[in-house]
Amino acid sequence: MTEKERIEQEVSEGVCELVHVHDEIVEQVEKVMPEEQELLDLSEFFRIFGDSTRIKILYVLSQSEMCVCDIASLLMMGQSAISHQLRILKQMRLVKYRREGKTVFYSLSDGHIQTILAQGMEHIKE
After folding, report:
1. Could you tell me which of 51, 66, 68, 77 has the C-alpha nearest to residue 107?
2. Are the C-beta atoms of 92 and 54 separated by less than 8 Å?
3. Helices 68-75 & 79-91, crossing angle to 10 degrees?
4. Which of 26, 37, 64, 66 has the highest count of CB atoms within 10 angstroms of its CB?
5. Ramachandran region of residue 67, left (φ > 0), alpha (ψ -120 to 50) or beta?
6. In the predicted model, is pLDDT for residue 61 greater than 90?
7. For the segment 3-59, what is each residue's pLDDT rounded down to a tens digit?
8. Domain membership of residue 119 as a residue range
9. Which of 20-24, 59-63, 71-75, 91-95 bottoms out in mean pLDDT, i.e. has the lowest?
10. Residue 87 resides in a domain
């Protein structure tokens, strides 16, 4: 079998041979489908995880609360680059901060973010 034939077979295996809509299943799923805006918001949420610098920042914050200087030092990046990414993460409510004197400490907003990171790591290690 040639490479082209193999690819054509793979494609055809993923397609129904008989076009038939399973109305009951479609209706059942349609009832629980989120609104379009919710799906757009979810897409935007996951888009944030598509940047390796933001993932690194989220990962270090999953280990400990840190200030911009700490994160910049750990990731060997400039403070302005870290601040820029933290601003994005704050806007998406993935991180929160607290001020202690002149220092601002960042942490993950809640346990959901740590769970998402842990599940993602588990998935890629399988």
Report:
1. 66
2. no
3. 120
4. 66
5. beta
6. yes
7. 777 666 666 676 667 677 889 999 999 999 999 999 999 999 999 999 999 999 999
8. 42-126
9. 20-24
10. yes
